[in-house]
Design goal:
Length: 247
């Protein structure tokens, strides 16, 4: 179980460090399958793993200036209300409905990134704050409800709405993921006793190391390749989730 968990942590860190999203998409089903956690325990534990790996992923990007810390924190702050609402809905919305919603949104974000324009300019993003508020609130709600960092929505929002360069969007997404994950975890205090400390600590350490080492790889990828990789990964994962959990 420990070996499988460490491998899972490495994969989570690799995906997060490279495309700036997808950590919780792997973490939640993985924690359920590997150590048999309940859905609530898995989503709560994933916030620790993904949030920590996100921090490790954006730190190397500070040197290359492919991360906008202020924008990431602002984006996260705008989603606090949604995070609170989502946390309150955990025990209300059926698990099957949560999974279906998760998958549908994943397909939507993948499609948007696949067809969306490639942004390479380093100029300041063109702000559309009303749309940003709506998207950030929705991402916050998903973070609270599903225990995800929201990167699979944050990256498309930054690229397609705020016109942030693709590589910078991946780094900025990690900032937002780390802060929203921390907020959601604090709001889930009633579920902390369901988190198995030793296994989650091992998974988290593996994810941190992997994310830190993978971050430089993203800088070598073509922006269009990065967007395509994001879209493919999210689509395949959404399909797997629907097939294994709903259909």
């Amino acid at each position: 179980m420990l070996i499988e968990g460490i491998i899972l942590g490495i994969l989570i860190g690799l995906v997060l460090g490279t495309i700036g999203a997808g950590g919780a998409i792997l973490a939640v089903p993985g924690l359920i399958a590997v150590i048999g956690l309940s859905t609530v325990a898995a989503t709560t534990s994933s916030l620790v793993i993904v949030g920590s790996a996100a921090v490790a992923g954006f730190i190397p990007r500070l040197k290359t200036k492919t991360v906008d810390v202020r924008l990431g924190i602002t984006f996260s702050a705008l989603g606090v209300l949604g995070t609170y609402v989502g946390t309150q809905l955990v025990s209300v919305i059926p698990v099957s409905a949560q999974i279906t919603l998760f998958a549908v949104l994943m397909f939507g974000s993948a499609f948007a990134m696949w067809r969306g324009p490639v942004i390479e300019s380093d100029s300041s993003p063109r702000s559309q704050w009303f749309l940003v508020f709506l998207v950030a609130s929705a991402i916050g709600l998903l973070t609270g409800l599903l225990g995800v960092g929201g990167g699979f929505l944050i990256v498309p929002a930054l690229v397609l709405i705020l016109k942030v360069p693709t590589k910078t969007a991946a780094g900025t997404s990690l900032v937002a993921i780390s802060s929203t994950s921390a907020i959601a975890f604090l709001m889930r205090f009633q579920y902390w006793d369901e988190v198995p400390i030793a296994p989650i600590a091992a998974f988290t350490l593996a994810a941190i190391v992997s994310s830190f080492l993978a971050a430089p790889l993203a800088q070598k990828l073509n922006p269009r390749t990065l967007q395509k990789a994001f879209a493919i990964f999210v689509s395949l994962t959404a399909t797997f989730i629907l097939v294994s959990k709903v259909i």
